[in-house]
Amino acid sequence: MMEVCDRLPCAFAILEPDGLVSFANAAFRTLFNLSSHPGLGGPDLSRVASGAVRSLKSLDGRILPVNPVTFGGGRTLVLVEDKSSSSPAEMTERRDALTGLANRVVLKEQIVTALTGPEPDGTETALLLLDLDRFKAVNDTLGHPIGDKLLCRVVDRLRATVRKTDLVARLGGDEFAILQRSPKQPEAAKALAQRLVDLIGRTYLVDDHILNIGVSIGVAFPPNDGNDPDRLLKSADLALYRAKEEGRGRFRFFEQEMDARAQARRTLELDLRRAFALRQFEVYYQAQMSLHDKQVVGFEALARWRHPQRGMVSPAAFIPVAEEIGLISQIGEWVLLTACREAASWPGNQRIAVNLSPMQFGKAGLVETVAAALATSGLPPERLELEITESVLLDDTAGTLAILHQLRSLGIRIAMDDFGTGYSSLGYLRSFPFDKVKIDQSFIRDMPTDGDSAAIVKAIIGLGISLGISTTAEGVETEEQLNRLRAEGCTDIQGYLLSKPVPASDLAAIFNRSTHP
Ligand SMILES: Nc1nc2c(ncn2[C@@H]2O[C@H](COP(=O)(O)O[C@H]3[C@@H](O)[C@H](n4cnc5c(=O)[nH]c(N)nc54)O[C@@H]3COP(=O)(O)O)[C@@H](O)[C@H]2O)c(=O)[nH]1
To answer: From the CB of 42, is ligand 1 less than 6 Å away?
Structure first.
């Protein structure tokens, strides 16, 4: 009886007909300081049983309404309404079900306490916001049960790292927070963050799986970095975002300029979402010339965003944002269709090269989208070249290769862009029969002055010759670069020496130049 009752979600007692307590549950005993032996002290409840008293004063001075219900044998059940008490139901609401850690509600309460400022002994609080790196990949590839076990192992390490006076909370998914109390802030927060980065980043063995994840951490201090829980959490989140931006597996303290940057970034996002509807995107075309006969053999389609206030926004600035907010597929599809339509209207049979973002591979229907662009525009497939970067092949290589083969079977060409800048350029050349490699412009730029760059360019061109793959040097700006590339056997060039990217309306001049060099 006692065990079950102690788990009931309210305080209650049973009174005998004479008003004596014959039973009280733990919540009731705590509220009114009753001994665990009923009948041995506490408030006089005889007037409660008679209905003359409808409220009782608790040990901590609160006046709590009581509900007497008479039942068999003249006994009375007294129920106490204590909305602030930690009943078991509310307990579950304050704890994370998987890990048993405190949840966001508890964290915010404790932040409010911390906001009162340093304690007399100089103790100050730091908020550390943690986000696990690469956890999603574990969950997605090995399933949620393994993901859950890994989370529990992470929590073991968190608990082992903090002090008893610190609070560890789980905010959801793979996001955790620590409120660290120390008289030696900010040094203590710095030391804890560094320890966590080291410890969480060590290998885990979960059900025979060797797992490697990491953690990124943002740190904020109340009240300077936020004088309410939401503001403080936001500051820590901005610092966390910066830590991730800088390469993950590290920590950053909040700085005011992060706020300004986040505002600017939010405005850019909003403008970018509107840009499509407002038809602010354009496609520019940059010529590619064959070094064999100096003819323009193709053009690369490059997205441009003409912003009414900012002017022309570089794709280097907006493509990564479009990728993050999931807009890149829409932009990429539009560029593809626009470029195919444009190329289909050209007088010659020059190729059109279109960039594909790694995100477009993650979205179903890429092959169908490309086939539809060809069908709608009437462009022969052999005139379309899709440029991908190595990052496309980093994730789900088997799935990506299957898509590449399907695209190839449509009759289009596949080029490897920015060759030489990735982790395993040569390996990727073995994994798929690319039609072309584009030598990254950084090597071309440094080629005249840097022996290593010159050697890399020479090696890539040599590789292309042996594998029967054409090579396009990007970013060619000088005659000297052109002559060296020709001497090495490079097949094509692209760069300002030939032409900058131009709008479709300026292409006629390039076609004429090509016909009458
Ligand atoms: N997924 C998509 N990515 C796109 C799309 N359109 C562009 N991009 C990518 O954005 C990056 C920046 O592009 P951009 O500013 O257009 O720069 C290109 C050229 O203008 C520049 N270039 C060309 N020649 C020279 C030169 O002689 N000197 C010099 N300093 N820069 C030069 O190089 C960029 C072309 O790069 P690449 O694509 O690697 O051939 C860029 O990564 C684009 O790929 C899009 O529609 N989708």
So the answer is: no
Contact between residue 181 and residue 124 where contact means Cβ atoms under 8 Å apart: yes
**Ligand 1, atom 46, residue with closest C-alpha:** 303
pLDDT one-digit tens code per residue, 276-325: 889 999 999 999 999 999 999 999 999 999 999 999 999 999 999 999 89
Angle ∠(9,13,19) on CA atoms, nearest 5: 165
- Looking at residue 440, the DSSP 8-state letter turns out to be P
Residue 86 lies in a domain: no
In testing the pocket of ligand 1, which one of 313, 330, 355, 361 has its CB within 8 Å of the most ligand atoms?
355
Domain CATH for 197: 3.30.70.270
- 5-55 confidence digits (pLDDT tens): 333 346 777 777 777 887 776 566 656 766 544 454 556 677 777 777 777
Nearest CA to ligand 1 atom 11: 316
Residue to mutate (ligand 1; options 282, 319, 363; most atoms within 8 A of CB): 319
332 Cβ below 6 A of ligand 1: yes
**Ligand 1 binding pocket includes 298 (Cβ within 6 Å):** no
Average pLDDT over residues 319-342: 95
HEC states along 155-167?
Answer: HHHHHHHCCCCCE
Which numbered atom of ligand 1 lies nearest the CA of 494?
24
Model ipTM value: 0.95
* Contact yes or no for 497/476 (Cβ under 8 A): yes
User: Which tokens belong to 366?
Assistant: 């890429």
Domain count within the chain: 3
> In terms of residue numbers, what domain contains 149?
95-254
